[in-house]
Amino acid sequence: MPLFPMSRLLRHARAHKYAVGYFEAWNLESILAVKDAAEEADSPVILGFNGGFLGNGRRRVAEDIFHYGALGTAIAERARVPAALILNEAARVPLLLQALEAGFNVIMHDHQECSPEESAVINQDLVRAAHAAGAEVEAEIGELPAHDLGTGRATPGEKTDPEAAAAFVRRTGVDALAVAVGNVHMLEGRKAPLDLDLIRTLSRRIEVPLVLHGGTGIEPAALAEAIRLGISKINVGTVLRRAFLLALESYFRTHEAARVDPSEGTSTGGEQDLLAGARRAVTVEVLRLMSLFGSAGMASRFSKEES
Ligand code: 13P
Prior knowledge:
It contains 13 helices and eight strands.
C-alpha cells in the first residue's frame, strides 16, 4: 500500500474512538518489530524515527536521513496495514526538509529551543513545504516535562493553553497538534496523572487531531479516557527501547558470546539469534499497546470504510 496521510488515519481513529500508535523506531529491527505487530494485530500504524536522536552531534557516525527514509517507506509501503511515516521531533529545520525529500510523509519540529513566535514562523514554513510535497506537519503547543532517569526528576514543562493552541493551529495550518496535559516524556517507574478536563476542552476547541506524547508513562485507564475524550495519536518510545535492552540482557545471561555460533547468534533469524529475539520483544510490547489503544482490528475496518 502507498503511505497514508496521517490525518486520514487519525480522523478515522477519532470518529471510532481509538488511537493510532506512533511506536518510535531506532534501527532496522525496531521498525520491523512495529510493522510485525501492526500486521499481527490488523492495526493502522505510524512508523518513524526521532530526528533529535538521528540528527544529534554526539553520534559516533553521522546518519544519512535518506537511508532511514528509504527503509521506512519500503517497510510502510509493503505493510499489509495502512501506515504513515514520521520524522519526529527534529530541532534542525534543514533535516526536516531533507526528510520530505527522503520520503517521510509527516514531519515534526522540536520547538524546545524556540520562542512561541519562532515556532509559529517555522511551522508556517514547514506546512508550506510539506503540503507542497504531499506531506503533513505535526506540531506541539506547550511543553512536556522530560523525566531524567538518573536524577528521578522531571523538567517543569508547560501545559497547553487552549486559546494559544487554537490561534497557533489557525495561523500555521498544521495537520495535527501534540498537547501537554500532564503527560511526561520518558517516564518510567510511575505514571503521570493526565488533566482530563484540559483534554476535553482542547478537543472541543481544536479541529485537527490531538496527539499525546510520552505514552510510556501513562496509566492504562487514563489512556482509555483520553482516547474517549478525543486523543487520536499516542507516541511511545521508552518502553520499547527498554524491552529491546532487557531482551539483549536476558540473551547474554543464557548465552556466552564466545561459544555462540556466530551465524546462529546474529544472522539466521532463528531461536539463537540475538536481534531476532529483541525484535520479537518489541513486537510483544507494541501488540499490548495496540490492544490498549483500541486500534487492533481497525486496519481492515479503515480499508473497508475509506477505500
Ligand atoms: P515516551 O518515550 O515517554 O514513551 O515518549 C515517546 C514520545 O513521546 C516520542 O515523541
